[in-house]
């Protein structure tokens, strides 16, 4: 199901961040060697290095892509107390038979911070071209490009003072007009006495104000990464937090009469700390699957089941294989496992056919006799698909009273184009053939 491909990035020091563009066909990496590299994916799904340059005079912590509506634009932040905006330009006079030369140029350098800039993120496209940065001096700065055609001009719109040093931030990407612009910021402060390490800020049209601190869910450990799930219509927000473990917080509408801005609930928390410290969390485009990475060198995928319980569905090593030690926690419970507490505790010796059925269904043994008994009493359908076009044909009946297919009421017939289908009252297809035959 999953494939892993190794890329020799040839960075001379630790790689701190990897970012994909909007379409997932370009990738940027940054490192403590002060450089940024851009990779393009070819038709064979191989990653080819297309650009490499020295971006800062210190370790580069984060790199992020702007929405492609604004062109090929990157933002980076560094230990050298600056954030930079980079734009890719294509040469106008390529030689015959060659494509134009692509180069990345620095459009501007943001030098307002007096300490290390730890994270940088572009805002939602609906807000225009905005950029948020956070630094260890406890300040969130929001910049905006008034003219998207001139990325050399950026204005500092807001400065948000936080009480703790900032390590990471994330924008809420929501398509609902009922949700105002929102930013969540995390702190890697090691002092638990300083309170919650996550704060939520909302924009009220004039200024950014702090509306939630997540103190009710008790996140007092250093936060290394934070990510809002894409909101495609939910009435609540999902926030993933990377601390010593993985945590997912729900920010829902507050109850009537409550003075709180959100109804904050800790939806999921990793029960076993198999991955050690978690350093990165990232959502898929639908906000249904969360990926996390930790000290053990594995990537874990998290997904909510039908009971809205988040489970680890896969543990991947660097070679793409699933970790054998986590097979018990990497799969969601089946229907039988969830229903097991409500079933009778009486058991009996299983037959050979039931023993074959049990491992395939992954159900407790006490459920197998009841399921097998129900299956044995059900009539076996004798409609089976044969031939190239999977037509249904009658091959006999288990009913001794029928020498032909059971009679059907006329009201259960349905026609669709040239295809003639017969349905039972439960909606299952009994036969299908062309009306011309």
TrEMBL record:
It is found in: Lysosome; Nucleus envelope. One of its GO terms (cellular component) is Seh1-associated complex. It holds the Pfam family WD40. Keywords: Cell cycle, Cell division, Lysosome, Mitosis, Nucleus, Protein transport, Repeat, Transport, WD repeat. Residues 323-354 have a biased composition (Polar residues). SUPFAM superfamilies: WD40 repeat-like (SSF50978). Signal peptide: none annotated. GO terms for biological process: cell division; cellular response to amino acid starvation; positive regulation of TORC1 signaling; protein transport. It comes from the Eukaryota. GO terms for molecular function: structural molecule activity. Residues 323-355 are annotated as: Disordered. Its main location: other. InterPro entries: Sec13/Seh1_fam, WD40/YVTN_repeat-like_dom_sf, WD40_PAC1, WD40_repeat_dom_sf, WD40_rpt. WD repeats lie at residues 8-40, 271-303. Belongs to the WD repeat SEC13 family. This is Nucleoporin SEH1. It comes from Frankliniella fusca. The lineage of its organism: Eukaryota, Metazoa, Ecdysozoa, Arthropoda, Hexapoda.
């Amino acid at each position: 199901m999953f494939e892993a491909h190794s890329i020799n990035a040839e960075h001379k020091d630790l790689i701190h961040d990897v970012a994909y563009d909007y379409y997932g066909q370009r990738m940027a990496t940054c490192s403590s060697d002060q450089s940024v590299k851009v990779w393009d994916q070819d038709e064979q799904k191989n990653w080819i290095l297309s650009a490499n340059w020295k971006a800062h005079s210190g370790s580069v912590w984060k790199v992020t892509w702007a929405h492609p509506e604004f062109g090929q634009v990157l933002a980076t932040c560094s230990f050298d107390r600056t954030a930079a905006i980079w734009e890719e330009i294509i040469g106008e006079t390529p030689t015959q038979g060659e494509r134009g030369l692509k180069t990345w140029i620095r459009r501007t350098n943001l030098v307002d911070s007096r300490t290390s800039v730890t994270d940088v993120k572009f805002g939602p496209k609906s807000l225009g071209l905005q950029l948020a940065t956070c630094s260890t001096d406890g300040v969130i700065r929001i910049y905006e490009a008034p003219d998207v055609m001139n990325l050399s001009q950026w204005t500092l719109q807001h400065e948000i003072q936080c009480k703790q040093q900032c390590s990471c931030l994330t924008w809420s990407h929501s398509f609902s007009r009922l949700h105002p612009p929102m930013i969540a910021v995390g702190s890697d402060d090691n002092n638990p006495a300083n309170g919650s390490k996550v704060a939520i800020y909302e924009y009220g049209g004039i200024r950014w104000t702090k509306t939630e601190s997540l103190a009710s869910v008790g996140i007092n450990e250093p936060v290394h990464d934070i990510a809002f799930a894409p909101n495609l219509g939910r009435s609540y927000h999902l926030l993933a937090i990377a601390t010593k473990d993985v945590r997912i917080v729900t920010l829902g509408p507050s109850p009537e009469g409550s003075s709180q801005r959100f109804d904050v609930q800790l939806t999921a928390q990793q029960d076993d700390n198999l991955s050690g410290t978690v350093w990165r969390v990232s959502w898929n485009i639908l906000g249904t699957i969360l990926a996390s990475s930790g000290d053990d060198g594995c990537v874990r995928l998290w997904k909510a089941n039908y009971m809205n319980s988040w489970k680890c569905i896969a543990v991947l090593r660097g070679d793409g294989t699933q970790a054998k030690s986590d097979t018990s926690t990497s799969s969601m419970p089946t229907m039988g496992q969830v229903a097991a507490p409500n079933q009778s505790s009486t058991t009996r010796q299983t037959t050979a056919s039931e023993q074959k059925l049990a491992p395939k269904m992954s159900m407790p043994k006490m459920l197998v006799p009841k399921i097998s008994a129900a299956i044995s009493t059900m009539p076996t359908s004798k409609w089976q698909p044969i031939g190239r076009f999977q037509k249904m044909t009658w091959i006999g009946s288990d009913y001794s009273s029928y020498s032909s297919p059971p009679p059907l009421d006329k009201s259960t017939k349905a026609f669709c184009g040239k295809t003639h289908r017969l349905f039972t009252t439960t909606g299952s297809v009994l036969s299908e053939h062309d009306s011309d035959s």
